Amino acid sequence: MDTILKAEHVVKIFDTQKKSSTKAVDDVSFELRKGEVLGIVGESGSGKSTIARMITGLIPITSGEISVKDVQKKNKRQLYDKVQMVFQNPVGSFNPRKTLGYGIGESLKNKGINKDVIDKRVGELLNLCGLEKEYAKKYPHEVSGGQCQRAAIARALAIEPEILICDEATSALDVTVQKQIMELLIKLKKEKELSVIFICHNLALVQMFCDRVIVMCNGKMVESGTADEVINNPKDDYTKNLIDSVYC
Amino acid sequence: MEFNEAILSYDSVDISYNGQKVVKDVSFQLHKGEILGLVGESGSGKSTLIKACMGILGDGGMVTRGDIHFGQKNLIDLPEKELRQIRGADIGMIFQDAGASLSPIRTVGDQIIESQMAHGKISREKAKENAFSLFEKLNFREVDRVWNSYPFELSGGMNQRVGIAIALLMNPPILLADEPTSALDVSVQRQVVEEMIRCRELFGTSIIIVTHDIGVVSAMADTVLVLKNGEMMEYGKASEVLNNPQNDYTKLLLSAVPKLVRK
Ligand SMILES: Nc1ncnc2c1ncn2[C@@H]1O[C@H](COP(=O)(O)OP(=O)(O)OP(=O)(O)O)[C@@H](O)[C@H]1O
Ligand SMILES: Nc1ncnc2c1ncn2[C@@H]1O[C@H](COP(=O)(O)OP(=O)(O)OP(=O)(O)O)[C@@H](O)[C@H]1O
Ligand SMILES: [Mg+2]
Ligand SMILES: [Mg+2]
């Protein structure tokens, strides 16, 4: 399989006002292959969302490098067309004064696609994510947490990205809807060779759907391997402790 | 486990947003020291149901039928002024969207001190001391940094823990927890669940926990209510609902739970 994204020795340091600084990501390297679902699991506060935000160019990298196949460095337009993200906090990621349908169709509108085509596509995307097309007319505060999360997934899929980053994208969904979304992602992976970075605290879900897994702890990547290797034969103490904490 | 007095009771409650009914005829009782797990479909009305007793449904949202009793008081008729006294101190809430429930422009420490001082006689020093000792239990790595941070400087799960701390520090007799562990790794999740169980043991706290995580429900709930499309599908003892579900939707839900395969 071809490599579609490569992170090499990536470091992120946040400097805060009180002259203190936080090393949120500490020398992390990994590859994402085309058509692969790569899970990122680990400690809360270990730098998972920070990695996602650096990949999508939302925040600068302190040192190291992230390269995406066929995207020139610093070309935000190209990057946006290829890499889309579902944010950890779906409600905050929509403009509160615009409908969900507007938010989902916005990237298509920017491409100059006409309104009727967009409306139809928005309806289809909502259906794919288990929502009726009427939800296009609702505002973010008028829907439940899980409904908003599904609208965020629909939005990320609108321009058919090659790489999808899901930051806790299924954490507000009940298990039946969660299953539907995972099946959708697997279908896109098979049919369109979509590559997915799947950040998730649910280890069972990761085991079921991810090809490979990275484990993060305190800014560092402490382990990586196939989902089964990491879960059934963890090498690192943090990973062992994490797996032992699962309720069941 | 045996329960005595009901501390919170919902009686045939309907709730609508702008005339559209989203919760239909829901009744249940929460007793002192009881932990009720509220589960069900996304959009089925779980958040709506627990927001109703706090009077925080927002514009367009209202209870259109039924009563919600907290002790002798019917919360539906209560004026805003009285409700405000109940919120936080008598009925604490952990919000589904923890980050958004915090003020973006003030530090975590300031917000925690303010919420504690608003309801009781407590010094700043004591408030900070209480918070720090709870922070340790919630597995924060750098307690001082968290205290001095603004919410945007913290991760999703760190903000969620701040929300949990704010609610627990008030030590309310009733705690409504809306997806309190959805952004937490499983090891921190376990700490939070244990902390809530400890509150029940030490203070007899009654808890409603809304969650999609059936593992969490089976670890802590005494009773379970299953909601779909605003209606009650099943309500009973946790051991019975989880081990021997009667309703088709409950069966479907339980069968879809992904399980870790250990070899
Ligand atoms: N804007 C910021 N300014 C300062 N520190 C930040 C900022 N954003 C994140 N951090 C810090 O970086 C670290 C990593 O945060 P990040 O959000 O990447 O964690 P995470 O692994 O996604 O955690 P969670 O599972 O809780 O969502 C945390 O210690 C956090 O406090
Ligand atoms: N402010 C509002 N205005 C109009 N409709 C609303 C509003 N808030 C929620 N709804 C609708 O009410 C229904 C119940 O929403 P609620 O947030 O209670 O669901 P939930 O069970 O908490 O779902 P989730 O598990 O996804 O968080 C949903 O269909 C939602 O779209
Ligand atoms: Mg995160
Ligand atoms: Mg909800």
From TrEMBL, chain A:
SUPFAM superfamilies: P-loop containing nucleoside triphosphate hydrolases (SSF52540). Signal peptide: none annotated. The keyword Nucleus does not apply. This is Peptide/nickel transport system ATP-binding protein. GO terms for biological process: transmembrane transport. Residues 5-243 form the ABC transporter domain. PROSITE patterns: ABC_TRANSPORTER_1, ABC_TRANSPORTER_2. Gene3D superfamilies: P-loop containing nucleotide triphosphate hydrolases. Pfam families: ABC_tran. Keywords: ATP-binding, Nucleotide-binding, Transport. The keyword Nucleotide-binding applies. One of its GO terms (molecular function) is ATP hydrolysis activity. The lineage of its organism: Bacteria, Bacillati, Bacillota, Clostridia, Lachnospirales.
TrEMBL record, chain B:
It is a peripheral membrane protein. It is found in: Cell membrane. GO terms for cellular component: plasma membrane. The keyword tRNA processing does not apply. It holds the Pfam family ABC_tran. Keywords: ATP-binding, Cell membrane, Membrane, Nucleotide-binding, Transport. The keyword Metal-binding does not apply. Residues 8-254 form the ABC transporter domain. Its main location: membrane. InterPro entries: AAA+_ATPase, ABC_Ni/Peptide_Import, ABC_transporter-like_ATP-bd, P-loop_NTPase. GO terms for molecular function: ATP binding; ATP hydrolysis activity. Belongs to the ABC transporter superfamily. This is ABC-type dipeptide/oligopeptide/nickel transport system, ATPase component. It comes from Acetitomaculum ruminis DSM 5522.
